[in-house]
Write a structure and sequence with these properties.
By secondary structure, this protein is an alpha/beta fold. It has 11 helices and 10 strands. Helices cover 49% and strands 13% of the residues. The N terminus is likely disordered.
């Protein structure tokens, strides 16, 4: 799914100064402003779901369907229309993940969307407009925190990508251990920040490099590529592409394979492979936040954000 040409031009004009600044982090505006389009926090969870005897729990924007008999749970994003990563959604995802990590009944989590056709559109524009510097710092710290918690989780994380997954949505998927994408040409995935005239944060880039290799990642990042399913599988951003109605069942089958491996050995191996990447952000975390706050607080950027939001509102009407 792509932005209209006019929206692309406005987005580039808005964010190009950030792309030129060395060391500054990027932000994803793909489907930005979804909170403007829909203020509903989500649907009321259904009574069913999960394994036999299991009761669903969670929060307004995250539904957890536990299946303790299988040693796993399904965690669904439910912030319609596009699961933009607001501060509330970021926080609720971390809290839900932490609750599962602290319960020895669970060794794995399937992360998916409760909104048909969209996995996650990325970061929420409304978190970056008309707020004070303290809020911007809180928001970017929450973005960092979710990535760190996912990337280093001792749980097996299987991402069932059942919709489009650009920018921050792609990062969420890349942070998991295994990715399954629905075979629908509209369901593209990738870090497309340069298409909007900005630069992906170094830790976004590191995660992609670790997944598909340096040369493929360099090309994808420079061109801001969004890969349809077949290409995503070929380059290695996802591990499987399956028919749309088989995404969840495939995720459960894959989870069973991963959980058959002795957990202690698998967890140590995961930490061995990922710790150095996470440490890069941890060592620069405060500076990364300050760079974000400095950029987003500029009067010129705030003015452009207001204009962009007004355009989204008019398009909705």
């Amino acid at each position: 799914m792509a932005l209209a040409a006019g929206a692309r031009v406005q987005a580039r004009a808005l964010l190009r100064p950030w792309g030129r600044a060395p060391g500054l982090t990027g932000l994803a505006l793909w489907f930005a402003g979804s909170r403007v389009l829909s203020a509903a926090p989500g649907r009321t969870p259904a009574a069913g779901g999960g394994g036999p005897g299991a009761r669903c729990f969670g929060s307004p924007r995250v539904l957890v369907e536990p299946d303790p008999a299988a040693g796993m749970a399904v965690m669904k994003l439910r912030k319609p229309p596009v699961n933009s990563l607001s501060l509330e959604l970021l926080t609720e995802l971390v809290i839900s993940l932490e609750k599962l990590e602290n319960d020895k009944s669970f060794q794995g989590v399937i992360i998916t969307s409760d909104s048909p056709g969209i996995f996650s559109a990325g970061l929420d524009l409304m978190e970056m407009c008309g707020r004070d510097p303290a809020h911007y710092a809180e928001y970017w710290k929450a973005v960092q925190e979710l990535w760190l918690r996912l990337y280093l989780s001792h749980l097996v994380l299987i991402c069932a990508v059942n919709g489009a997954s650009p920018a921050g949505g792609c990062l969420l998927a890349l942070s998991c251990d295994y990715r399954i994408l629905a075979d629908n040409p509209k369901y593209t995935i990738g870090l497309n920040e340069t298409q909007l005239g900005i630069v992906a944060p170094f830790w976004f880039a590191d995660t992609l490099v670790n997944t598909i290799g340096h040369r493929a990642a360099e090309r994808a990042l420079q061109l801001g590529l969004l890969f349809p399913p077949a290409e995503a599988l070929q380059v290695g951003i996802v591990d499987q592409v399956v028919p749309e109605d088989q995404v969840q069942s495939t995720a459960r089958s894959v989870m069973a394979q991963w959980l058959a491996v002795p957990g202690h050995a698998r967890q140590l191996t995961k930490n061995l492979m990922r710790k150095a990447t996470a440490d890069r952000l941890l060592k620069q975390r405060d500076a990364d936040i300050q760079n974000f706050v400095s950029f987003i607080s500029r009067d010129s950027i705030q003015k452009s954000l207001h204009v962009y939001i007004e355009k989204l509102q008019k398009k909705k009407v």
